[in-house]
Each structure stands twice: as C-alpha cells, then as structure tokens.
Amino acid sequence: MPEENQARHVAIIMDGNGRWAKRRGLPRAMGHKRGVEAVRKLVRSLEGTGIECLTLYAFSTENWKRPEEEVSDLMNLMRSFIRSDLEEFVANGVRLKIVGDWRALDPDIVAMLEDALERTAGGTRTVAVALNYGAQQEIAAAARAAAEEGEITPEAIERHLFTADLPPVDLLIRTSGEVRLSNFLLWQMAYAEMIFVDTLWPDFGPEDLRKALDVFAKRERRYGGR
Ligand code: FPP
C-alpha cells in the first residue's frame, strides 16, 4: 500500500527541447534527440520511486502546426525509440500505453505501436505516451460516449477517458519555465499537484524527478476538504 504522500501517477509536459538546442547553436532536432535520451534515463530510474505510472506528453494535436520537417523528425524519433527500447521495456516489466488519437498516425507507426503494446502488456509499471493527444478532444469524445450510454456524469465520462485504467494523476511536472497546461490531461488534473521547473527537458534527470517527488510529499492535499 503506497503512503498517502507518495505519488503513484506522475505526468510530465516535456518542454524546452528547442531552447536547449538553440542555446548550443544546434538544430532543434538535436534537442528532441536529447529529449528522448532524457525519457530513457527517467524510465530506467523509476524503480524504487513508488511511481506506478508515468505519463509523458510527446506530441499534441496542436503539434501538427509545426514545420513538416520537425513533425517528421519527431515521428522518426518515435520509430527509433520503439525499435531501440522495446526489449528493455519488456525486460524491465514496463507496460507501454498510448493515449491520444494515435491510430491517425502513419500506418507503420501504428503497426509498431500495436506490436509494442502487445509485447509489453504483461508489465507492472506503466509508461503512457501521449501521441496526437488533446484533452478537450478526449473529454468531448468521452462525454459523447457517456451520452450514448445514458447519463453524462463525471463517473461515466471518466470511464471513457484514455486514462480510465490508470490511477488518478497525483503530480504534474512541466519543464522549461512555462506555466500552462497546453491541453494536457485537463480532466485528470482536477486534484493533481503541479510543479513547474526551469530546467529544460533534455537536462531533466532522475535527480530532478526525485526532488519533485520530495516537494510533492510535503504538500498537503485537501481534495476540497480541510
Ligand atoms: C517540447 O519542446 C517538446 C516536444 C514538443 C516534444 C517532446 C518529445 C520528446 C521529448 C521526444 C519524443 C518522446 C518519446 C517518448 C520518444 P519544444 O520543441 O516545444 O521546445 P521549445 O519550447 O524550447 O521550442
């Protein structure tokens, strides 16, 4: 049984890859590449943190507005990430989950992801990657599905969210100093604590996560009570 002040589900808005690259005079793609390395390190460090689920905002429904080349760089990073890290996920008992309208991505990515989901299905710790994800779209679709079943109640909506099978989000972290939710997990954030750090995503490491968990553990959560 986890302690009350221990975060079971942590969600992260991984921001600042572009600025990380710019500061070094490198192409943006390099920032995203280092961003993937930060993801890899973080996933490897989950053991012993008490985190059962880590949800990462990798590509939003708004990210399609970026230049074609950058969208394609991000998609290629996704392909190579699955190729290089899938075996490690399986070996370490990590269950991959995808949230968002990911079936609208390129067919080869959809096929890779389907395979990855199947192969990691037995994992006990979840890494959920948000791909082509938008919270308003998610909530609208869930409300529609709830309406079709009968009643639109918070419980009914919740049952139709991508995250229905995950524990409630305890903590949201956003890197790079921006203080916004950017259409990420709006419903799920109802009682979550939020931590905004200035660190750019490629520089965010396991130590930074540990620090955020310590800050979280000291906060008093009231859920509207007292
Ligand atoms: C924000 O940085 C980051 C993104 C839009 C993409 C995040 C994606 C990754 C870290 C890689 C893919 C993830 C996985 C799981 C393989 P930005 O480009 O908005 O940075 P900026 O605000 O400094 O320009």
UniProtKB/TrEMBL annotation:
EC identifiers of the protein: 2.5.1.-
Cofactor(s) in the UniProt record: Mg(2+)
Active site, per annotation: D15, N63
Record key words, sorted: Magnesium, Metal-binding, Transferase
Keyword Ubl conjugation attached: no
Cofactor note: Binds 2 magnesium ions per subunit.
Residues binding Mg(2+): D15, E193
Top-level division of the source organism's lineage: Bacteria
PROSITE patterns linked to this entry: UPP_SYNTHASE
Ligand binding (substrate): 16-20, 28, 32, 60-62, 64, 66, 174, 180-182
Alphabetized Pfam families for the sequence: Prenyltransf (PF01255)
Entry keyword annotation includes Nucleus: no
MF GO annotations: ditrans,polycis-undecaprenyl-diphosphate synthase [(2E,6E)-farnesyl-diphosphate specific] activity
Matching InterPro entries: UPP_synth-like, UPP_synth-like_CS, UPP_synth-like_sf
Entry function: Catalyzes the condensation of isopentenyl diphosphate (IPP) with allylic pyrophosphates generating different type of terpenoids.
Family from the record: Belongs to the UPP synthase family.
PANTHER family in the record: DEHYDRODOLICHYL DIPHOSPHATE SYNTHASE 2, DEHYDRODOLICHYL DIPHOSPHATE SYNTHASE FAMILY MEMBER
Subunit structure, interactors included: Homodimer.
Name by which UniProt lists this protein: Isoprenyl transferase
Gene: uppS
